[in-house]
């Protein structure tokens, strides 16, 4: 670990109190720097962790660091909740990590139609606060995750679009305004099945993606391995609270089920997001990889076979858990996104429906890192090749599941990338966030 130049330390000290500047060999630094979602982020060592507690402090900190970034004497990382799992996405060796988790606040507007949320909040806090007012807001599905990981917005139309998918290429978001909706009962949960049901679940998931018209029904399907056993599952919800509605009966009727594990019930938004929080833990050796395809039963059966082949080669790793998930993006979802103003991903409704494929390994020992990364990387490359050969691979790569080698923003399409470059020239003409923030997914340079 290298020490920052005194001029850089002085710039930070000119903005933040000493207690908000965490340096190595302090208990506060160690606690903060080992609180990421993945072990790979925990293993980096910034020279300083800066913890602003207001939008003004963030603004002043970036202004103070700007000349040092342009001069090349420092680089920074921007941390929201720290959920992106690959090393360097929200932490940095020998630089400054700006930790935004002290930017708190949940403020309901007078007419109760919107809520302003500090990016340091978690969805659990947001949903719990709104639930007291019999309200909620439609966003993150995992309660313990941070607000900044899921949605970005701004009142400037071009910047608003850029930040909805543009990630850390344009600036630092400190507060988000969300529309509120009445908090109603939701029916849903998780249904688990024996491994032999995968083909039936897949058939119904493809039918759901292609044909279902009930926009209040939602599903996420997966096959999984852990602790020497396999299972198949479907997370499903009906947001109008209809118990076992027709749209979901194709999934609730699959047998045999592992009944002691199933959790279908009527509850509230907060409780369902808390359930999904229990599916993962911070600090593990874990990451996500993903591709997007057009739903196709034959291709997905082949994907499942390839996943099983890969599993057989690495399941002896200590503490190994392995998921193969597929989540539909329906035409209705894409149409509603377009009506709401669109985003930088620029997926036209005519491209739907789509499946977002999730490959997620978890393990405990560093000695297994190399072979697991190689095996899973090879698997994802093979899935991408198979989908491309059948003409079913889509350009989009879901940002939250993207791996560090993925060219995420290039997957938004040439027109969207051109608009993002123009927005960057307008709002960051000196390329402070391109030069100074090396982590995360970057806007590709013009070839």
From TrEMBL:
One of its GO terms (molecular function) is flavin adenine dinucleotide binding. Gene3D superfamilies: 3.30.465.10, 3.40.462.20. InterPro entries: FAD-bd_PCMH-like_sf, FAD-bd_PCMH_sub2, FAD-linked_Oxidoreductase, Oxid_FAD_bind_N. Residues 46-143 form the FAD linked oxidase N-terminal domain. Keywords: FAD, Flavoprotein, Oxidoreductase. SUPFAM superfamilies: FAD-binding/transporter-associated domain-like. This is FAD linked oxidase N-terminal domain-containing protein. It comes from Neoarthrinium moseri.
């Amino acid at each position: 670990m290298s020490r920052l130049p005194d001029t850089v330390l002085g710039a930070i000290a000119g903005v933040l109190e000493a207690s908000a500047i965490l340096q190595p060999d302090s208990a506060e630094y160690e606690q903060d720097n080992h609180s990421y979602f993945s072990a790979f982020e925990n293993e980096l060592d910034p020279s300083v962790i800066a913890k602003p507690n207001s939008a003004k402090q963030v603004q002043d900190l970036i202004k103070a660091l700007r000349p040092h970034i342009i001069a090349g004497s420092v680089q920074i990382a921007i941390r929201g909740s720290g959920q992106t799992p690959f090393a360097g996405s929200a932490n940095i060796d020998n630089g400054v990590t700006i930790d935004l988790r002290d930017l708190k606040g949940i403020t309901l507007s007078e007419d109760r139609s919107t809520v302003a949320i500090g990016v340091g909040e978690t969805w659990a806090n947001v949903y719990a606060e709104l639930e007291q007012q019999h309200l909620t807001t439609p966003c993150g599905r995992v309660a313990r995750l941070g607000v900044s990981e899921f949605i970005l917005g701004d009142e400037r139309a071009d910047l608003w679009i850029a930040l909805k998918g543009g990630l850390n290429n344009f600036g630092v978001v400190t507060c988000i305004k969300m529309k509120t909706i009445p908090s109603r009962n939701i029916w849903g949960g998780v249904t688990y099945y024996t491994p032999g049901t995968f083909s039936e679940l897949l058939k119904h998931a493809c039918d759901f993606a292609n044909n279902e018209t009930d926009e209040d029904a939602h599903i996420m399907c997966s096959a999984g391995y852990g602790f020497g056993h396999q299972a198949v599952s479907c997370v499903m919800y009906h947001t109008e609270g209809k118990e076992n509605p027709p749209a979901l009966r194709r999934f609730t009727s699959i047998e045999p089920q592992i009944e002691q594990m199933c959790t279908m019930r009527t509850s509230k938004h907060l409780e369902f997001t808390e359930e999904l929080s229990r599916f993962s833990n911070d600090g593990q050796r874990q990451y996500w990889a993903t591709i997007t395809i057009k739903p196709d039963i034959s291709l997905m059966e082949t994907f499942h076979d390839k996943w099983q082949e890969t599993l057989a080669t690495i399941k002896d790793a200590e503490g190994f858990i392995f998921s193969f998930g597929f989540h539909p993006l329906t035409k209705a979802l894409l149409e509603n996104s377009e009506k709401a103003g669109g985003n930088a991903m620029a997926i036209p409704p005519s491209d739907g429906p789509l499946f977002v494929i999730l490959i997620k390994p978890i393990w405990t020992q560093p000695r297994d890192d190399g072979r697991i990364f190689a095996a899973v990387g090879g698997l994802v490359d093979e899935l991408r090749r198979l989908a491309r050969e059948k003409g079913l691979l889509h350009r989009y790569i879901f940002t939250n599941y993207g791996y560090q080698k993925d060219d995420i923003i290039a997957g938004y399409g040439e027109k969207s990338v051109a608009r993002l470059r123009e927005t960057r020239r307008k709002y960051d003409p000196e390329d402070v966030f391109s030069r100074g923030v090396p982590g995360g997914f970057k806007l590709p340079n013009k070839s």
